[in-house]
Each structure stands twice: as structure tokens, then as C-alpha cells.
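User: Continuing from earlier, I have the next pair ready.

Assistant: Great, send them over.

User: Here they are, in order.

Assistant: Folding the first of the pair now:
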Amino acid sequence: MASWRAVVGVGGGIAAYKAAELVRELVRRGIQPQVVMTAAAQEFVRPLTFAALTGRKVITSLFGSTPEEVLASSVEHIGVARGHDLLVVAPATADLLAKFAHGLADDFLSTLFLAFDRQVLLAPSMNTAMWQNPATQANVAALRARGAVVMEPEEGELACGETGAGRLPEPARIAEEAHYLLARRHDLDSETVLVTAGPTREPIDPVRFLSNRSSGKMGYALAEAAAWRGARVILVSGPVELAPPLHVELVRVETAREMRDAVMAHLPESTILIKSAAVADYHVTHVPAQKMKKTATRMSLELDPTPDILAEAGAEIERAGRGQLLIGFAAETENVVAEAKR
């Protein structure tokens, strides 16, 4: 059963068809959607599509067609506003952004926006020139200043044939942002959490490197969980095949030395440090400038220890006396409990 209720406003743009997938993604996350369509949106997608996906009547007009419906709909926008936790508008066209910013209310969606006093999430979609137009940017700035969350449009090929910023963010990403706004807690609001994740790569030559099998999944999950609890999160990540969590400051590194430098640079501002990265223990002493040629003879590598980031951070925390919490991880294959206590 759905835990939250969200209004999904569908604007009149070519990306309106993606709102159907957005509705499905919201339902998957336990969010019950109520779809509201503008007249222009109905030129691209029929209301029946959303009615079939949600099992609910789609609101398409501010007024009904009969006297009874007109009477019932006269305050329907107030009832819908009071009965939902979040308003998501996707696609949020340039026209809708302008209406919202200037308080115009000439249809159900724009009237609902004025009556909605909870969280608002807007996902713009339009031509690049329209997005970059100073009028649109001023409208976006005004809406953000009033508390609305306006996502950045994605870059790529647009329906008009041009390439640039203006694509509607992927429905799964919009749904994840909606879920974040509804589910986030605030018990870590005052914390800055510094997390390390993934492996490091220590070059052997310009094309080869030493590394390990770390996927980075645990560190990314910890960073995401901290962000959903209200913390400011800085994620220092080695090379992984993972999308960065929402609302996390990502610092990409490759070598142990780079990870050490990033951790020590951000350590003073952090209150919690979670070292979940699988940092290489050794690096090649002298890395040649050119690729080493393969030969039939045996070859040995001269290795030096990499910086002990956990030990250095711990020493700095103790020296500074800031009361920071330090959590370290280590992969072991034997004597796990004894090694954990060491």
C-alpha cells in the first residue's frame, strides 16, 4: 500500500509521454500518484493512459461539463492540494515555469500550484534556447528562492533535432528525487559525513595498473543513507561503475595518494569519517613514461607501501581534538574477529 500521495502535473511538451513511465516509477516506490493534465498535454498523451496506470480519474479541467460537476470542481484544487504530500510537474514547460513564477492561475494545474503549501518538484523540458533564455532562468531562480526543487534538464539530442540542455530528466531519476523529498529524515542535519568508497588504481605503466575487486557498493550505500538522513555528504570515490547517489558531493580519485589528499583536504569540515574504500596497499616505485614491452624474460616490480589514510586521519583527529567520529573497514580472509579488534 502506498505510503505517500503525490500529484503528477503533466505539461504540454513532447516529453509528456515520459510521464507515463514516471507514474510507474512512483508507484514502485510506494507513492500513489494523482495525475493532472494541462490542455496542451492532452494533445500529446490521452488521459486514458494515466487512468489505466493509476486506477484513478485524471483531472483535466478546472470546471466540469455539467452544473453538478462545476459545483463540485469549484474547490477541487483545494482538496487535491490538501490531500497530497508532494507536487511533481513533468514535463515542466517554459510556459508552466512562467505561470508558476508569476502566480498566474488559469487552469487546474496552475491554480493547484498556488494552493499547494507542501513540497514541489519541477522537472523542466524544453528547447535549449528556451531553457537558457534569461526570462526562463529568472523564473527558475524565483521558484528555487521560494523553496521549489527545480531539477536541471539533461543534455542530449532534443526532439527538434538540436543537441544541448533541455531533455527531461529520466523518469527513474525524477521518481528517486520525489522519493528522497518524501522519505528523508533530519536526524543528521547537523553532520557532515565524509565517505570513501571503491578501489584505487596504482599505475604500472601508462596502460596497466594494480587494483582490487572492490565494487564500491557499500560506500555508495552508506553515502546515500547519510544523505537521506539529512547530512551533508562528501563521497571520495575510486573508479567504480556506479551512478552517484542524489544530493552527495562526489570527488573522483584514482590512486591511493589522490584519495589521501582528498580525505585530508575535507577532513577539517567533516564530523564523521567512514573509510570504506579498498585502498591499494602498495604502489610501483618508479612508473615508466612509456608502456613496458612484453618479453620472454621474467620481470619483477618494485613496490612501496601506499599512505595509511586511516592511521593518518586518526592521528589528525586526535591532534585537532574536534571530536570527530572515525569508522574504518578492512577486508580480511582469516582471523576476522581478532583482526577487527586489533
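And the other member of the pair:
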Amino acid sequence: SEGEEGKFFVWSPEEIVETLGDDEARIFCLYYDVTEEGNFEGHNIPNIKNATADTAKALGISEDELAASVERSREKLFAEREKRIKPFRDEKILTAWNGLMLAAFAEAAAVLANDEYLAAAKANADFLLGELVSEGRVLRTWKDGQAKLNGYIEDYANLADGLLELYQVSGETRYFTEARRLAEMMITEFWDAENGGFYFTSNDHEELIVRNKDFNDNATPSGNSVAADVLLKLAKFTGEEKYERFAMTVLRLMSGQIRRFPNGFGRALGTLEFALGETKEVAIVGDDAGELAAELWREYRPLKVVAVAGEAAANDVPLLEGRAPVDGKPAAYVCEGFVCKRPVTNAAELAELL
């Protein structure tokens, strides 16, 4: 803020004394390592350096007295800091990054049985579909009520991936249907029909000198890695080989680079494991199937897709076709290549099949 890095957040001992007074400032400065020398370019970022018990002993007070003093001081200093000029924030919302968050919240909701995480995932998905998909096309960014710019392959792929994860947890077919539609858009709008792989920009993007493809997984995964992952999952859900063909073409294009520098292809390697491993297709049908669903997420099982439907639920997921509860009980079907073992109705039997 004000052209100086960290100015809004740092403190000098003099500022703390002025705000808190000598006694509480002495406690605060020792607890949060605030010194004349500073710990950041001559200034101080408050940070807890020592254990609470050690600080209390050094000050000659009890831990409860220390905690009460620190709490009072924090409130006063926060109020004082609010008077400062705040730094500018980058408040734009990016579809690709929100797709990553959507997938994380959805999976965390299942693993931790956390309804708040599931609600957050649904709210995020509904926002993205309502605000960042226009006339069937994904847009890149949203800010102050306005979405703009054509989406890139990473936007389509990460949004589709997040929606697939949310479908597997919630069983709401609309998320699966939209993920599949986005995958079809990736193929029609981004695929390089001559050499294979997904371009970073769509066919109707503004003309560029070079239309490149991104394969490296860096701080965020590449659009090609995520797109291949999404297509492989859709192949498992639908039985359509075309999705697998597109995905395997991408992985073959990346294979040489993966061998030379595997650390740069983390998501691609995970996708490759999904493609070559003994991946299970699991269909859960029937109402009140919580015990069966919980078993699926009890251990780390990345080589699976999960299709969920209530007893009377209509759906567009081929993996669920012909699957029905057993003797009125919720049932789980564990399949490979759409060839299924006999259905089971309790978690212990399901665990054995997985």
C-alpha cells in the first residue's frame, strides 16, 4: 500500500507503545517478536516466536494473564490498523482457479463428511454456471458483476473437473450433464485435429501469431492434463471410447517430456495412473445409501469414479443404467469396463470389492 511493500501490515515498537501504553506494549512486543531491529526490512511483522508458557515466565505473569493482555492488544491494534490506507487487492474471479477450488471442496466434503464444505461446493458451482457460462460458452473472469473474455482450455477443463467431483459426492445429475457438455466443447473448440492435443485458446479466439498448447503442470495443472483426466473419467461413466482416445492422445504427446522431467507433470502422471491402473466404476443406487457412499471415501482410492442416484432419481449417467436396489436396500455395483460384480448392500462387502 502507498507504494511500499508490507506498509499496511508492519509495526514499529513506538507505534505499539503509542497505541497500547508501556505495560501492554511490553507484553505484546515480547510475545510477537517486535524489536527495534525488526524482522522485515527494519519493520516488524508480528509473529509468535516462543511458546506461550516461556513468554509468560519471562514476563513474570500467568498464561491466562498473557492471553487476556494479548487479546486486548490485538483488538486495539486492529482498530488502529483499520485507519491506514489499505493495499489494493486483485478481486477478479477466475473460472479455472474456482474449478480447482470446487473440486477440492467437493472431495473434502466426502472425505470429512462435512456438510458445510458440500454447501460451499454447490454454491460455488451454481455461481460459476450462472455467472461465468454465457450462451453455452465459458468465460474467463468475473469482477463487480461482469463476466468477460473467452475461456481458455484450463477454464473449461477445471470447471468440468470440479463439476464431476461434485456430482460424485452430491449425486445431482445436472452437474454431470454440464461437465459432459463442457468436455464436448473442449473437443470441438480446442482440439488440434492435425497434431493432437488441446490448444490454449478456442477456435473463435482472436487471431494470434502462435496458437500454443500448454502441457506443463506448474503451480496450477495444465489445461491438457486436466482435460485428459476429465475425458478419462467420462469414458468410465459413459462407456464411450472416444473420450479415452482423446485423453490417451494427449498423454502420448506428453510422454517424452514426462520421461525427461517428471516433476513438471504431476497432474499428468496422476492421470496416466488413472488410465493404466485398475480403475473401478462404482454405481450406488437407492435412497439412504450413506453407509455405502462413506465407505468409498474412507480410504484414499484415486482409481475410481462414483455414480450416485436415489431410488426414483432420473439420470443421464450410462453407468447407472440397469442398476437397481436389491430387495429394497441401497446397493453398490463395482464394475470394470461396465462389467460388474454382483451388487452388495453393506459397507464391509463393498470394501472387499474395492
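Worth noting for the second one:
The chain has 13 helices and eight strands. The chain has a mean pLDDT of 93.
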